[in-house]
Structures are given as C-alpha cells and as structure tokens.
Amino acid sequence: MSKSKNIEPENRETQAQDERVSIELDVSVIDLNNLGERANSALGIALTAKGSAMVDFGSHGSFGSHGSSPF
Amino acid sequence: MSQSFTPMHTFIVKVASRCNLDCDYCYMYKLTDQSWRHQPAKMRKATAVQLARRIREHAIAHQLSVVKVILHGGEPFALGIDYLRKFCDTIIQNTTGIKIEFGAQTNGTLWNPEVLDFCLEYGISVGLSLDGPRSANDLHRLDHLGQTSFEAAEDALKLLASPQGRSIWGGLLCVIDLRNDPLDVYRYFRAYSPPMIDFLFPLAHFDSRPPGKEDRLDTAPYADWLLQVFYDWYPHPYANDPANPIRIRKFSDIIAMLLGKQAGFEEIGLNPVDFIIVETNGDIEAVDTLKVTYPGATKLGLNVFQNAFDDLQHQPLVIARQERWSSLSDTCKQCRLVKVCGGGYFPHRYSQQRQFDNPSVYCADLTKLIWSIRKTLGDDLNRLAVPA
Predict the structure, then answer these.
(1) Interface predicted TM-score (ipTM) of this complex, two decimals
(2) How many Å lie between the alpha carbon of B306 and the closest alpha carbon of chain A?
(3) Which pTM value belongs to this model?
(4) Which end of chain A, N or C, is less packed with Cβ atoms under 10 Å?
C-alpha cells in the first residue's frame, strides 16, 4: 500500500510541498501468496524475488554507462 | 586508510585503446577528450602482470576473495582470441588465491563461434552494445567506412541468445535516440530474451545538452520514451517464460528502491562506486565516461607501476563517487527523490561554471520516470493490500 495516495506524476510541485509524501512504498500489508494475476508482473517478481536477474539487490560492480559493461 | 573507502571489486581494463567501429557518439574517440591517441593500442604483458599484482595486493588487503576484471576498450575482441587468452592467463597466474571473474563489453562485430567458445572456456560474461534493430542501430553505430555494423552485431546477438551463449550473456547496452520508436527497440530486444537491458541516456551535460533538450531542460522526452517501454514491460517483463524475466536495469532498480531495498548502480542510487578504469599503459583512471566533460577529466596521476589501488582513497574524484551524498548539489540534497535517483549520473551533472555541483541534466526525465513508476506500483499495491 502506498503511504501516499492520488499522486499524479505531473503534479510535482504539489508533491514537493507535501511533507507527508514519502518516496518509498509500504509493502508490509501485502499478502505475497495472493498476488494473483500480478504475480508475474514486474512488481510481483520484485516482491517475491523470482528470477534473480530481475532485482539484483545489493549487487556490486554494476556500472551502466555509455559503452561500459552491464555487470 | 580512510574509514569510508570502499575497496574496488571491479577493474575495467582497457586492453585495447582502438575500435573497429566509428560510432558518432563515442565518448572515447568523438568527444572532448582525445587522450586515447597517446595510449598504446593494446596492453603489454608487463603491464598486465603488474596490474594483476596490484589487483592481488588490493584483494588481500581488503579480504576480497573474488574480483571482476572486465575486458574493455576500444573493442577488446579486435585484439584476437590469442591475445585475450594470454591476457586472461597472465591475470590468473599472477592473482594466486583470488578468484577472477572475467567480463567483456563488445560491439559484437568480430564475433564468431570461436569467440563464443573462448568466452565459455574462461567464463567471460559478455555485454553487447547494440541500439536496436537496423534502422535504430545505423543512426550511430557505423564503421570507419561509414558502413553498417548491424548484421555482424546481430550475429553476435544470436550467438549470445543461443543455449550455450545464454550462460555467459550479461545483457545489452542501448543508447536512447529519441528518433527511434521505443517499442520497436524494446520488442526487437525482447525477442531474444536478454537477461538484462540497460537503456542509456546519451552522454551529455549542461554545456553539451542532450538531443531533444537543447532549448529546455525542464522537458522530459527521455522519460516519455522510457515510459512507453515501461508500460509495455511492466505487466509481463519477459519474452515467453516468467521464470526468465528481462531485467531493465533502470526500471528494476527504481522498483527495488521504491520498495525499500538496497539497490542502484552507477547511474542512480547512492551506493559507493567500487570500480576503476585501467588504461592500456597502466594508468589508473576515474570512470571513463567523464571524458565527455573536459580533456583530462579522468586523469588521477596514478599508474599500476607506481601506485597501489589503495592510493585511490586520497583522490577527490574517487571520494566523490564513493561518498555520493557529499558530492550532491544542494538542490539534490533537498529533494525527496534523491534516495532513488542519487542525483543522477555524475558526468550528466557537469558544467564548466559549477563543475559537478548541479542536478543531472536529465533531472526532469528522472523525476517524471520515478514518479510515474511509483504511481504504477502504488496503484498495484493498493489493489493488493489485505483489507484491514
């Protein structure tokens, strides 16, 4: 569940003035066993860490840049 | 030793300082810095031996049992397999007790089954640079005669996507060109089910603005381009099999950080940068993409023959990349998005007037991209929440 609701991407000035808005999302109330059709979405894969290539938490040596390696 | 110094886990080695392609956006050859002209065309054995000794010294000092050595250039495979085999053997033989994981970044144009076999033999994880289907790729990635590189690069793509090649395929690097249809580019790549795609902003900064943002930096055409890919990717981020998802690095890492995970890489997030460049003559240099800013920007005055990698801890440019919060502009420090974007990619912040004391020249794009991904995630999480 989002800590803030009704956030419109275009409305950045309002967001900047709203101290209640946290950039992080709260996933503590999600039942990971009941993701339904979203289980295979990017969110579902990230939440359940299916496919290690999907969300490589804390990996070292990632350097994405123009012509540099993706490792 | 500086308490905040993060040891180097990855050594990007410019085994070759020349390339068989002549891409018009290349930061090595086409932009401000022309220092490649003074570099040996390839790394000599004596330099490779000394490099390996320095790597071992560094790994032992910091109790690193595994480090990565990336074959880079220029085009590393232009040197031929025999050279690269000797190079890898030299590194292995002089780093006793340390596991070396090899990687390579290639334009793919010199690939064939023998190259693949060599990479499989040494476990070299391979990143391929390709900008999409022919029409996209040929906008920039031509050879020195102005001829397309597409067929040859696509052959490499097919080799890496083969059952054998897949085991060493690191992913794809693709520089965004706004003239290309984002879905054409993404779906072309998706058909090969790559493990990772990194869509890169063109290298640019405040004095050399990105294509499409020359007049106004508060527009977000790169976010708009990426978001078309995101909305296509997000519901089904795979080609055929959900067990083999395609990681689109910007999206995956932004999602991870929005979910409170430790993530990020050089371009976003605030994790310390733990890789370093070694040129063909043994010079130890800062991230090579800084060549886009001003001549000599990567120079640290260090060389493997005179310096240990621990000498990096005294270098302001290295400190700025490791203590990333301290390098941020005041604007970024006050922005709530900084935890995710990390102020953007270091070279993108440059201006002659304020050096790196700026937000990213892509700030508007990063802002729109992050908030848009957050909205999609937030809406989904709201639907998935367990009723109170």
Answers:
(1) 0.81
(2) 25
(3) 0.89
(4) N
